[in-house]
Amino acid sequence: QAAQDALKKELNGQMLGNEAALPRLPIPELEESISDFLRAAKPLLSPAEFEETQHLAKQFLQEEGPVIHDKLLEYDAMPGINSYIENFWEDAYLTQRSSIAINTNPFFVLEDDPTPSRTSQIARATTLVWSSLKFCQGVRAGELEPDMFRTTPLCMRQYLRLFGTCRIPRAARDDVRTCAEARHIVVMCRGHIYWFNVLDGSGRLCISESILRETLRSIREDSIAFTPEQNISNAVGILTSTDRETWARCRETISSMSEHNEKSLRIVDESLFVLCLDDNSPQSPADMAKCALHGTSVVESFMGSSGMQVGTSINRWYDKSLQLVVCQNGAAAINFEHSVIDGYTVLRFASDVFTETILRFAENIRGGFAHRSSAGMRSAEHARAEKEEEAAKTASFHRIEWVLDRELLTSILKAEAFLSDRIMQVDLQVLEFANYGKNFIVDQRMSPDAYVQIAMQVAYYQLYKETACTYETLMTKKFFHGRTEAGFVVTEESTRLAESFDRNSLEVSKELLKKALDAHVKVVKLGSEGRGIRHLYALKCLSERGRAAWWSPRLLGATSTVTLPDLFKGVAWKKLNRHVISSSNCGNPALRLFGFGPVCEDGFGFGYIIKDDNMQFCVSSFNRQTSRLIAALEDTLLNFKRSLQGQTTLMPLSPAYGSMITQKHVIPFSEAKN
């Protein structure tokens, strides 16, 4: 009843006030989606492959396509279906059986706290947790100001699953649980798991900021007392980095061993979020990005052993919707589980939390001026005395002690070894491009996002001499329960530019660039309107009926023997579903970096932020030439500018694209101490 009352309050609140007026995600005409499919596939195929694809598309339009499309329309009209793609897309995440660490969970690296006194680990963690709790209260009260894109309201439903949410591993398909009454947070330190209440039964804060700070300090001190062997023996969280079937079996075993274990798992699942206090101090943006994506792998020998993991990779719980990561030098990041939460939602959270730190910084300055008066000095002394008295207090925190047998301990060690292998395979590099940014591009009357996307395609072609499938995440939150659309952004125009860029004069390249940008903007506009290829993915899911437990077999008839149409078996469909370049733009003044792992073994993950006068890129791959690719990207961006400024010759390229571009514009993270 309490959960229903809370939900009713939220529905009547400001946060969800626009939901009833949001349009439903439209289902495109079948002919339109097939046309876009052919447009996206053509640059990636040989003439013979494209001819075969045209034949399959025509066959699909004449035979199975209209029947399945009509069934999709019927499905979309069923009670309880909020969006025709929602269940299919969530199912795609939850049926994924590979590890979600690196492969799925994205990350944000936050800008530094501007207040010098809050750049130590405990001070930064306290500020982030405190601001996060205020944001959570706003969500639960339904008071969060609705998101807008210019003047268009956006769907706010995802915020209801930002806190108290956890992915639960299961055989075949995972579950997602949200605890609307969650009152506690989990803190991980050196692999150990602690928890304590931060809200009372009415959802109000039940601790002060100073008590929160001292509690976090006490937790860190408690964790230091344990040996590396004890740390790894309690690092159950690392099992969340294994493949989903393995983790499901391990979790079931852990739960069945004791009621204490079962309760402990629920404590983690139902926590508002996880705070990871890491005992490392990243010295460069690339190091911090790696820490945010997967933690560190550092092996040391003890008493003649072959090596013990002492890195921060053991200090994560990847199933949680929200993990705040804070390092010893105050560098901070967010890692989030992606099945029900998209980057735009977490970006708003990060932005509001960072805004809170700016406001507090301003109050600090204003307070400093106020304290110059004698009355102000007396007031400040009184306040300090109260703070010192309260600082001696800590909240009652608990450390989880697992009941594990030898088999589970072996599973933990195995998981650590496999994750460390994977970490060694990840090549993640950062380019902080300081030559120009959004302002220059806009001055050329060009779309900044399209500009960067075309630069990525040209850079890839410069290195590999071929065009690769490039996926860009497009937001569809202006629709009810909207999430994203797949933007397949390689066009004939961008391919023509990439193939000839190093042979043309810059004047010719300028004209080709404009045409490529226009084509890109058109693709993005259609996708953002919900008119993309994900419609075909829904049709494919319908043709594979019975694949998920929520499916209603009556849509195709219980005795139907529908088989997968040939269109979804062809080379074009396969190529479009192997995202060699997976990319997303997620910029905001609150972020230093944004990134994620590659989505296929031979792919690259491109997370980028476009600011007024600079751009940041996090590029990842599995054992490919990441630094060489971003060297080509920097050269391309510089030559784009030369062409737009009327110069006629290309700038000399970096030798073999081999210079370590990542080091050119790096501003090291501070080495603050507690």
Secondary-structure class: alpha+beta
Across the major sheet, the strand order is 13-7-6-8-11-12-1-18
What is the strand tally?
A: 20
| Number of distinct helices | 21
The share of residues in helices is: 40-55%
Our estimate of the beta-strand percent is 5-15%
Q: Shape from CA axes?
A: globular
Uncertain ranges = 369-382, 546-560, 658-674
Measured on Cα atoms, how large is the radius of gyration?
A: 26 Å
**What does the largest sheet look like?**
8 strands, mixed
Give the rounded overall mean pLDDT: 89
- End-to-end separation in angstroms reads 45 Å
Question: What is this entry, summarized?
Answer:
Helix content is 44%, strand content 13%. The chain is an alpha+beta fold and 674 residues long.
What can you see in these coordinates?
The structure is a single chain. The chain contains 21 helices and 20 strands. It is α+β, with helices and mostly antiparallel strands and 674 residues long. Strand 9 and strand 10 form a beta hairpin. Helix 6 crosses helix 7, helix 16 crosses helix 17 and helix 18 crosses helix 21. It is globular, with a radius of gyration of 26 Å. The C terminus is likely disordered.
